[in-house]
Structure formats: structure tokens, C-alpha cells
Amino acid sequence: MGVLLQVDELTKSVGDRMLFENVTFGINEGDKIGIVAKNGTGKTTLLNIIAGNDTPDSGSVTFRTDVKMCYLSQLPELKPGATIIEACLDGGGPVADAVAKYESVVLGGDTEAINESIHEMDSLGAWDYEDRVKQMLTQLNLGDVSAPVDHLSGGQRKRVAIARAVMQHPDVIILDEPTNHLDVEVIEWLENYLKRQRVTLLMVTHDRYFLDRVCNRIIELDDRTAFFYDGNYDYYLRRRAERIEAMNAEHARVKNILRKEQEWMSRQPQARAGKAKFRIDRFYDLKERSKVIHREDNVRLETGAGYIGSKIFEAEGISKKFGDKIILDDFTYTFARYEKLGIVGPNGVGKSTFIKMLQGIVAPDSGEWNIGETVRFGYYSQEGIDFDENKKVIDAVTEIAEDIEQNGVHVAPMQFLQKFLFSVPDQQKYIHTLSGGERCRLQLATVMMLQPNFLILDEPTNDLDIVTLGILEEYLSQFKGCVIVISHDRYFLDNVVDHLFVMEGNGVIKDFPGTYSEYAAWKAERDRQKQGEEHKPVEKTQRASDRKEKLSFKERKEFEQLDAEIEALNNEKAELERLFNSGETITDVAEKSARYTEISNLLDEKEMRWLELSEKA
Asked: CA nearest 142: which of 182, 170, 192, 97?
């Protein structure tokens, strides 16, 4: 396997903060590399430098001369005013340009332009490419390829950008948080696609199942340097624990030696007269090494929930729709004390609307919510909080509360923020300088500092680093209150919730008693059974054939007629193909294109019927 790109001695700082220093690694053909690190340590910056969108303080990135690269950012840009298929084909080369032109002129209806475009498609062999583009967009639930991208949601725009990246067939794909804003179904499709394809990947993602199932190498950014692991995420976790343990043992050994050397250095100067200078130098070297602490961030959230009574909430006959789109249809449910519920479903099905109705932010069309008197909601919205960008982190939190109670113990905002991995220097940062993950942590802090007993979390895992996710999972598993969480993070759902509401659309909600992985296994088995049932009529036909069931008089006449019809349709199809490839001017090309499609569909139907009857003949 050849080296596609080489990173040498990369160093990058922001202001007086060093992100990483002298980072060196190579990417080989077929590598699928995941980058993991805490928020604010430079993951996205590293990707931007490799993609050529940022410059390092020192070091270099060298690509092999023939390497084609594609970069998918967290918030991908699409061409304004373009349709979905035009945006997907943008930048894809001559074949993609020909398909985009054809799609555009067909919508315009200009016969001469359509004829020219057909000839161009023929000469480039672009018809198969067009089919594959549309097939991929359909798999990504983007069936209306003529819809304008300007009105798409964040998740839909991300799906268009994913299709664009994949269809360009690059040698290297760089992905920055590819699973953010995608529903679980699309994440699983992308996961399976990237596993199967022999494509080289470099990506940042907090989705631990995605990392584990797709990646074969992990790069960890920690303490301004990079550590490398040749394996998936599970392998990385085991080896990292060993590395931390070894470093801590070394740190303890250094501290022990330093203690003895400190005693020697503390003696009177005359007692040290004539001693070797190297020992004094070693003392100062040991002192510097002892300051480097290699350990896990064993931070635990200890914010206690307020008392919550036995009555939580009751939903009675809740219905809600927007136009023809039904969100809830006569929904009735009684929520239990300490219940932990996950909500999953495709984007746009109404998950966020559901939790906004529960809190009274959105009114139902009919029915009512009966909320218990002791319930105190804590709401984490995926839209975020409008912080004053020019305030410091500590000042923003102090404005909300100058005194925070944790299990009966009063703590200052500075102490509280340290529980959310904001060091004292980090608390002095201005909010406009925070990374996306740091803003998420700050929002979580402001939600939990008021001691809610009912947490409602709408996509809390977007932009959070893996360390923070682990801390949040542990906190929620022990939270003495109620939890409703909307998330596409399957690992997070498995560790937090007791059961799921699966919103299937058209007002249908199914209550599944288990984790997401259990639901996925159940759904896969159900789909297999359905496929088996669909094949049963074929099996019956085969058994009937085994018994030499004869054609009826009516079927025999139909069978004879089908031969003539199929032959005529094939002749007409061949004539149209000859016309399309002849270079002649076609005055009614749109009509003939529609007839060609109709003939193809008719042939499929009649040939299938011919096969069924031939089994009896």
C-alpha cells in the first residue's frame, strides 16, 4: 500500500495556547483513521491544515501528486439556488457536469438544448453515472432531487454533502463530525457504506460505534502531542488505559527520586561542595518531569436532582399536525417516576416538537398534558442558548447563580465549572472564542446548575467530545430524577435509557422496552421475517409447478399473446435507442423519452408475467 500523504512536524498555536506540537504521521492507501481528543485540543484545526484551509505555525503536509482529496466540514456549504442533484454533482468533473446540465435542460423543456445534452451524455457514457447518483440520493432519503437546497434542514444539507463527497470518488475523504445532525438510519447506512468501500478516510467523530466499526487506526491528540494506535476504537481504549497506567507509574517513580534529591539539594551549600554538577542538573530535570501529570480526567458530575413526587406527567389524547403532516395522533401515556426514555426516529418526524409540547412551548391541537406539581424541567435544546458573546465563561455562569447547591453543599460557580472540564484559565475565555464542544459543555452546565429533577435533552451529543460524553452518561445513569433524551448516538442511548419511543411518522409511536442495540436487533429480525413472508407466494408457485399444474385456457391465450406483445415492445425500444444514438434532430424528444421509460416498465411487467406462466406451460 502506497503512502497518500505525509504530515511532518506540524505545530499550531492559537494565541498563547499551544494546540499540538511536532505532530508527524503518514496516511496509507486504505487507512480509515479516526482522530479523538477533548474539545479545544485542535482536532478540527488539524483537519483544516491537512485540507489546505488553514496554515500551521511550522511543519508541512505533502500529498502524492496524483491524489484526489475531498473535505466534508461540519457545516458543509452548498451552491445557493441549486437543486439537490445539482449540488450533489457540483465539482464532480466533466461527467457530473454533463448530468447536471441534462437535468437542468429537461426541467426547462428546450428541445434543442435537450438534444445537445443527450448527445453529450452519450459521448461521455454518463447515463449510468446519473442512475448511481439518483440511487444514492434515494438511499439517503433525498428522493425529490429537484428540490432547492436553500430550504433544506441541517441534516438534509449534510446528506447532500455526503452524497457529493462519495460520488466524486476521491482517494482521500476527510470528514469532520459526519454523523452530526443525521438520524440513526442514515448513520447506519453511511457506516455500512464506508466499511465496504476501499476508500481512505481521515475523520473526527464522537460516535463511538461509528469509530469502532469503521476505523482501523486511531490518532489521539493529548498534551499537545499525538499518540497512534493500529486498531479500532475498542483496541484504542485498551491500549490507552495501558499507556496512562505506565505513565502514571513513571510519574510516581520520578516523584520518589525527586523526593530524595530534594533532601540532598536542601543541605547546606558547603555539604554539596565538590559534588558532580550533573546531579544538580538532574534534579532540575526531574522537577520539570514531575510537573507533567499523565492521568485520566476523573471528573464526576455531582449535581443532585431536586425532590420529585410520584406524579410526573400524563398525556391524554394529544394530537398535533402541521398541514398534512401528523406529529401525534391521540397520544396517551403516563410517565413513571425515575423513568429514562430515549426518542428516536427519522429527521423531521417531530421529535423536538414532542418535547416542546410537553413543556408547553408548543400547544397541541387537542388533548392535554397533566404535569406533576414537583416537576422542575431542565431543557437542553439543540438550538443552543444565546449567550452574550463578549462575556467570559465565569461571568455568564455567575449571572445565572452566584451560589450553586450540590447535594446540600454550596459551591461557587468557579468550582462548579471545573466539574464540566472548564479549568480556571478556560473560565476566563470569552464565549465567542469557544469551540462548538465547549459551548455545548457550557450550556449543559447552565441547565444542570439549577437542580432540575426532569432533564429533557435534545441532541446533547452533538459536538461533545468522548470524555465529556462518558461523564454525562455516568451522571445520567445515576440521576435521581426523570430523563427524556433525543439522540442519534447509539452508544449514548445504550448506556442511558431504559426504553425507547420510536416515532415512525404519521403520528405512529411505538414503545420499545430496551436499549437501541436491542431495538436494532429486533428490527433486523422483523425485516428478515417480512422478507420471508414476501417470498412465500414464490415458494407456493414452485410447489404448484412441482405438481405439474397446467395452464387454464385463459392463461394459455394470455401466454401466447404475451410473446407477441414483448416482441413488439422490444422492437419499439430498439428503434428509440437507435434514434437517440443517431445524432438526428428529435423534435419531440421529451415525449419520446417518456415513451422509452414507459416501454421499459411495461417490458418488466410482461416479462415477469411470462415467467410465471412459463412455469406452468
From this structure: 182
Phi, psi of 371, deg, nearest 5: -100, 135
10-residue mean pLDDT series, the chain (617 residues): 88 88 93 90 92 94 91 89 89 86 82 86 85 87 86 87 90 92 88 90 93 94 90 89 77 66 57 55 59 50 66 92 91 91 90 92 93 90 82 90 77 86 88 84 86 90 83 86 92 93 92 91 86 60 45 68 83 80 72 79 79 70
pLDDT at 279: 58
C-alpha to C-alpha distance for 26 and 305, rounded to whole angstroms: 48
Cβ-count burial 477-494 (b if 16+ within 10 Å, e if not):
eebebbbbbbbbbbbbbb
- What confidence tens digit (pLDDT) does each residue in 482-519 have? 999 999 999 999 999 999 999 998 999 999 988 999 99
CB neighbours of 62 closer than 8 A, spacing ≥ 6? 5, 6, 8
Q: Is 447 exposed, middle or buried (0-12, 13-18, 19+ CB in 10 A)?
A: buried
H or E segment and range at residue 191: helix 184-196
Backbone angles phi, psi at 367, to 5 degrees: 90, 180
DSSP for 8-27 reads EEEEEEETTEEEEEEEEEEE
**Domain boundaries of the chain, sorted by first residue:** 3-236, 242-290, 313-514, 553-614
Whole-structure pTM value: 0.72
* CA atoms lying within 13 Å on the CB side of residue 288: 5
C-alpha cell at 578: 437507435
Query: Side by side, which strands form the sheet with 172-176?
Result: 69-72, 172-176, 200-204, 32-36, 217-222, 225-229
User: Could you give the CA distance from residue 353 to residue 331 in angstroms, rounded to a whole number?
Assistant: 14
Distance CA 615, CA 268 (A): 106
* Residue 541, C-alpha cell as written in the block: 408457485
Grouping H, G, I as helix, E, B as strand and the rest as coil, residue 78 is: coil
Residues 299, 421 contacting (CB under 8 angstroms): yes
Q: What is the CATH number of domain 3-236?
A: 3.40.50.300
DSSP 377-407: EEEE-TT-----TTSBHHHHHHHH-SSEEET
Determine the Cα–Cα distance for residues 383 and 177; give it in Å rounded to an integer.
17
Please state the length of the chain. Answer: 617
Cell numbers placing 385? 442558548
CA distance 347 to 155: 7
Name the CATH superfamily, with its identifier, for domain 313-514.
Answer: P-loop containing nucleotide triphosphate hydrolases (3.40.50.300)
| Strand 404-406 versus strand 377-380 pairing type | unpaired
d(CA 463, CA 467): 12
DSSP of 86-139: HHHHTTS-HHHHHHHHHHHHHHHT-HHHHHHHHHHHHHHT-HHHHHHHHHHHHH
All cell numbers assigned to 312: 410526573
- Taking alpha carbons only, the member of 384, 36, 383, 421 closest to residue 207 is 36
